[in-house]
Amino acid sequence: MIPFKVGIFVTGRDFCDREAEIRKLTEYIESSFRVLIMGERRTGKSSLIMETSGRISGWKFVYIDLRTVATMEKLCERTANAIYSAFRTQSVLRSITNAISALRPGISIDSQTGDFKVSISPGANPDYKSMEELLRIAGKSRTIVVFDEFQDIMELPGYETILAGMRTVIQSQPDTAYIFSGSILHRMNRLFTDPDASFFRSAQQLNIGEINRNEFADYIRERFENGQRTVTENAMDEILQFGRSNPGDIQRLCIGIWDITDRNTEITLATVQRGMTQICNLESESFVDKLASLSANQIGCLSIITTMDSPIRVNSRFIANSGLKSYSAALAAMKGLEKKRILLRRGQNWYVSTPFFIHWFKTSGLA
Ligand SMILES: Nc1ncnc2c1ncn2[C@@H]1O[C@H](COP(=O)(O)OP(=O)(O)O)[C@@H](O)[C@H]1O
Ligand SMILES: [Mg+2]
Fold it and tell me: For 193-207, what is the mean pLDDT?
């Protein structure tokens, strides 16, 4: 079995470090705070939330994933199901169906879990009041309500009204802990620093940065060693360096390395390079599509980025080397790359957010 995991949140034995964050989050939850969790994609926000909630006993856990929620029907449906999953009682199910009876919710039995499942047909046309009603049911005492990838709520038409409604309800629930987690920082900032969002300003912020390098090195080494593979110091440095201590990217690289090694292999710098190539080969189709979606200016920026160390600054040298005509053209291209989630920005500093794509671009002779 491959001892590395990606694409899903990790808990228990698969969860490494983050003890300080767990302690803080536990304290915030036990104080029924409103918590804002911010961090890049694949840093481990959802894992942290899951791991922490698993360690706190006596609290119900309503987990609503807003990723790619595109309609109000979906938002209400996900919320209704998250509430039911947390309580699993007939009376809560009844409260849910009563609260949104105007939407004519359907109830079915999930063939896999055997649990009840609420569905709302497209076109049922819920308004913000349905969400308010649902949060009234969710917001019991000693309950944690999580909105994961919260910034995606901005995709909904009229989201300001929905938010205002949610705020009114949340404010009246002093014994419920609310967690808003997000990875698109400028969108989260807009949601939480808007002048009308004074309620959100009182939220406690928890930033999820890099994972502890030493702890994570031990975690990786142990997994390779259990599979009879040793890792040289240089190779370990390269693994951590490549993933910028982003646990998701590092675990993906480790899967690539695992794929091309056998028992009794020593993992060296060269093995790590081959592991990167392995992942790039697996992804090459999506990388070709990604590249085809870029403008000439964006490709010009990428070419120079492959020769630079992070953080990248868009200065006169950058512009001269990229062959772009002006600062504004360079900035527009960089913003486009940010929108496509290839880069990310912190103030004036830019960072690569998809190391495998950049590696593929660089090594396939396209740069
Ligand atoms: N604490 C951790 N220990 C080990 N791996 C982790 C940890 N946190 C995250 N990961 C890795 O990162 C991936 C993404 O984690 P996830 O919690 O989904 O991140 P996020 O919610 O920030 O996008 C996981 O599948 C796992 O590979
Ligand atoms: Mg997540």
Answer: 75
